[in-house]
Amino acid sequence: MFDTALTSSDFLFLARGAGMTLLVTAISVVLGTCLGIACGIFRFQVGPWWAAPMTFLLDIFRSIPLLIQLVLVNAFLGMVLKLKISGFSVACGVLTLYTAAYCAEIVRGAIEAVPGTTRRAARSLGLTWWQDMTSIVLPLATRVALPSWIGLALGVMKDSALVYIVQVTELLKATQILITRLQEPLLLLMICGLFYFVISFPLARLGGYLERRWSND
Amino acid sequence: MIEIEKVHKSFGQLKVLKGIDLRVAKGEVLSVIGGSGSGKSTLLTCINGLEPIDSGRILVDGTEVHAKSTDLNKLRRKIGIVFQQWNAFPHLTVVENVMLAQRKVLGRSKPEAEAEAVRQLSHVGLGDKLKVYPSRLSGGQQQRMAIARALAMSPHYMLFDEVTSALDPQLVGEVLDTLRMLAAEGMTMICVTHEMKFAREVSDRVAFFHKGVMAEIAAPAELFGAPKSEELRAFLSATH
Ligand SMILES: Nc1ncnc2c1ncn2[C@@H]1O[C@H](COP(=O)(O)OP(=O)(O)O)[C@@H](O)[C@H]1O
Ligand SMILES: [Mg+2]
């Protein structure tokens, strides 16, 4: 079975693809989460009415398939605005907004789960809105949001496979290229799956670890 | 001194406070009794500016609570409030619960805040629960922690809103004892309460609220001994 034509430089090619997947995911999840937190707090604070334009915008990113978003944004920036923007930037930009759209909903729900009476107690001790937000609301909301957020991050990592459409050779695309050349789909897909596992496992474990650590309070 | 002058307050169409006039002097213990929905809690949340008022004014040490120029976060340092529901910050240990606002609001150093937290927690009998998370405490202990948390801010006034109403009967005593101790130490207090025995024994004056109006206010012996209004007589016979 392991009588294979796969060379070490092919393996390195796969590893670079995995690195690209990790990089695109990390950038998008970090930026998207920051943006999502800001949007989620805004959405909670001003109420559904005033946040409607923002919610509508985010809903667009949530409801149009990622592949279509990537193609359209790439075409719009390149052909309509005539901007010279790398596929990598487009990929990170679109995935960031995609992450932010989901993250905003998670954050809003988690903030709503913090009891109003707890916040009132904090304010009545003289904490400002900002101090209440950072010392009480966000720590409590984080505990509520964590499982969904981990799910989101893992989902974004898998969805990042679609950025091949804007000429970014990430893990799955790299695998496909090798499959075409070597005609050994099973072995290559196994290695590809293993790379995905190695990337996502620590994140999944981190979630479990934090949940256990926080379960005492 | 807390001065409440002709305060009106409504939630939408519902008139909750209909012209309340009340003065609470330094060192006084005032109990507020009355049926559910009569506006007692609303009055307390207006005093520390958690709720806006429609008209009239409330002065705390001469500062108008609802004036635009008033820094509410600063004013609230003077006024401790403890609610019916136990409002522990569940992600912080007991001692951290009491330290948080001292650090953030008063800018005390960590050792200072910790020393004060330990002092206040020991004072209310929780000196052995410092490093415990609130979820491990009984309702009565959580309520005493909330009292210590408020006291650590060195407030001039303490407002208590039915702090024993959500407790199991056997835990009521320990919390009332804490309030008695504070009263004996000379703290200025407004206690909304259903505990008539407590109101009678501890208060300098007792106010009876009925449908948004302060129907009667008098020394406990007078108010309980010779109620003037039909409403108060009905309320007292219903609670006894
Ligand atoms: N935030 C609020 N929004 C709308 N109505 C409220 C609010 N808080 C209290 N009320 C209403 O105001 C009335 C007085 O409430 P409250 O002051 O809590 O009475 P009490 O403490 O005497 O039982 C009640 O009818 C209550 O339903
Ligand atoms: Mg009430």
TrEMBL record, chain A:
Belongs to the binding-protein-dependent transport system permease family. HisMQ subfamily. Its main location: membrane. GO terms for cellular component: ATP-binding cassette (ABC) transporter complex. Keywords: Amino-acid transport, Cell membrane, Membrane, Transmembrane, Transmembrane helix, Transport. It is a multi-pass membrane protein. Residues 18-207 form the ABC transmembrane type-1 domain. The chain crosses the membrane at residues 20-44, 56-79, 85-104, 186-204. The keyword Cell membrane applies. InterPro entries: AA_ABC_transptr_permease_3TM, ArtM/GltK/GlnP/TcyL/YhdX-like, MetI-like, MetI-like_sf. This is Polar amino acid transport system permease protein. GO terms for molecular function: L-cystine transmembrane transporter activity. It is found in: Cell inner membrane; Cell membrane. It comes from the Bacteria. NCBIfam families: HEQRo_perm_3TM (TIGR01726).
From TrEMBL, chain B:
Its main location: membrane. It comes from the Bacteria. One of its GO terms (molecular function) is ATP binding. Gene3D superfamilies: P-loop containing nucleotide triphosphate hydrolases. Pfam families: ABC_tran. Residues 2-236 form the ABC transporter domain. SUPFAM superfamilies: P-loop containing nucleoside triphosphate hydrolases. It is a peripheral membrane protein. Keywords: Amino-acid transport, ATP-binding, Cell membrane, Membrane, Nucleotide-binding, Transport. It is found in: Cell membrane. GO terms for cellular component: plasma membrane. Belongs to the ABC transporter superfamily. PANTHER family: AMINO ACID IMPORT ATP-BINDING PROTEIN (PTHR43166), GLUTAMATE_ASPARTATE IMPORT ATP-BINDING PROTEIN GLTL (PTHR43166:SF9). This is Polar amino acid transport system ATP-binding protein. It comes from Amaricoccus macauensis.
